[in-house]
Design goal:
This protein is mostly beta strands. The chain has 1 helix and 13 strands. Strands 1-2-5-12-7-10 form a 6-stranded antiparallel β-sheet, with no helix packed on it. Strands 9-8-11-6-13 form a 5-stranded antiparallel β-sheet, with no helix packed on it. A two-stranded antiparallel sheet has the order 3-4. It comes from Alienimonas californiensis.
Length: about 160
């Protein structure tokens, strides 16, 4: 898998969907009323790239394949938490519960470049209709910035008026 094999992702970085279950599940409160049982993507962040603050309506499992990654998770009203996925930490996966804000950035890896290749599994499966970005100037973004001013760098630019 090379970055050339991947497509730009709205949150930053690049991705390619590699699995979408043919089995569907009924899901209340979502457009269409059902989702694939499970989806899986490859997701790559090169040096200097970030995955901006976003959330999805399903649980998401991050699995590290190459490099190292700092995954940020934040529940409104609390403090953001950092989870490092790396060989140095001997931690290769983390589950982000449905509806929790998340962002990520590659870290320097032992003997490697500042990049990360991960797999992201979402169940019930991912649909862009269930994806929300956190933009500068939104009230929720103001709450994040108040809790952790240094993490405002991971917000998406303000939406045009």
């Amino acid at each position: 898998m090379t970055p050339a094999d991947l497509l730009p992702h709205p949150e930053g970085g690049r991705y390619r969907e590699v699995f979408r279950s043919a089995r569907t599940l009924p899901v209340e409160g979502v457009r269409g009323g059902e989702r694939a049982a499970c989806t899986h993507i490859y997701f790559h962040l090169a040096a200097g790239e970030v995955s901006r603050w976003h959330r999805v309506t399903s649980d998401e499992i991050w699995n590290l394949y190459r490099g190292a990654l700092r995954l940020w998770v934040w529940e409104e009203g609390g403090d953001p938490e950092a989870v490092e996925l790396s060989a140095d930490e001997n931690r290769y996966c983390h589950v982000v519960p449905a509806g929790v804000w998340q962002a990520a950035e590659p870290l320097p890896a032992s003997g490697g470049a500042d990049e990360a290749l991960v797999g992201c599994t979402v169940a019930p499966g991912f649909d862009f209709a269930d994806f929300t970005m956190l933009h500068e100037g939104q009230p929720t973004a103001d709450g994040l910035t108040a809790a952790a001013p240094d993490l405002a760098r991971l917000l998406a630019p303000a939406e045009p008026a």
